[in-house]
Amino acid sequence: xxxxxxxxxxxxxxxxxxxxxxxxxxxxxxxxxxxxxxxxxxxxxxxxxxxxxxxxxxxxxxxxxxxxxxxxxxxxxxxxxxxxxxxxxxxxxxxxxxxxxxxxxxxxxxxxxxxxxxxxxxxxxxxxxxxxxxxxxxxxxxxxxxxxxxxxxxxxxxxxxxxxxxxxxxxxxxxxxxxxxxxxxxxxxxxxxxxxxxxxxxxxxxxxxxxxxxxxxxxxxxxxxxxxxxxxxxxxxxxxxxxxxxxxxxxxxxxxxxxxxxxxxxxxxxxxxxxxxxxxxxxxxxxxxxxxxxxxxxxxxxxxxxxxxxxxxxxxxxxxxxxxxxxxxxxxxxxxxxxxxxxxxxxxxxxxxxxxxxxx
Length: 360
Hints:
Elements: E1 14-18, H1 21-33, E2 43-48, H2 53-68, E3 72-76, H3 84-98, E4 101-104, H4 110-116, E5 123-127, H5 131-142, H6 158-174, E6 182-186, E7 197-201, H7 205-210, E8 216-223, H8 235-249, E9 251-255, H9 262-272, E10 275-277, H10 283-289, E11 292-298, H11 303-310, E12 317-320, H12 336-345, E13 351-352
Helix pairs in contact: 1-2, 4-6, 8-9, 10-11
């Protein structure tokens, strides 16, 4: 099939909705891996801006990179007051009508779920949002409602009950059928993929082509996690584990997760002497840009899957420390231990640290 000029057919208009820096990075990776990368004007990225300053800062830097690649980026202050969600949906409706494909980064997002109720039968792609992607595929396969893994079960609160029809409609839209296949673009290992979901591997080709290779120095760097902030891991236990790992591996820097609290990071610096680094880009790009330690220490998280891909061929070793059961808070989800263990056991090209490396 050819276009009006006799050449290749025009690229369908693609609208991508992102709410985090990593989601925007993976939209760029998807664009490179798909035909969309050959026609920058076919992709518009809509940033549904969060409120926390670190996420906003990283997103602005990622938006600059996307514009440098020739893509259109629309910054949407979608959380600026009580009327912002409805105003945002109203403003985005014309874009949605013109799109041939919708790309989303977080199927658990209430905002994205609301937008999905307006997309009809358009083609749909879910780009990687790390461990949440694995959970999403599993819940779709089991026919379950969409709930983040770290949330406790039980009765739903008033907000969840009000939004239940929106979530149910989004789950139906995200469930593939013969007429509506769903693409998932991920670097995570996925199993038992239901019929109608087409999995495309994210190999971080854009990242490796754009950044690096990095300068690698002796010693270790640590990667922070927001497991304390999400109510999964006890703060004191986490600080003890970080201190033990830093001593054992002579780590000097701690790359903070964008959701880690300033108070916790201050305690970490005081107790360990680690230099706290607040990255201005996702860690995959920071590590690829360098300089970076010859060993990267991490707890179970998405980066134990993504960093080996981004740093392929550099000689950098990624090492992961499991979360001991006694580190978990009593209020943590009953699924937390099994889920976090699965993140580690399914990771490729990583070194699992011995149990003696942690205070457990």
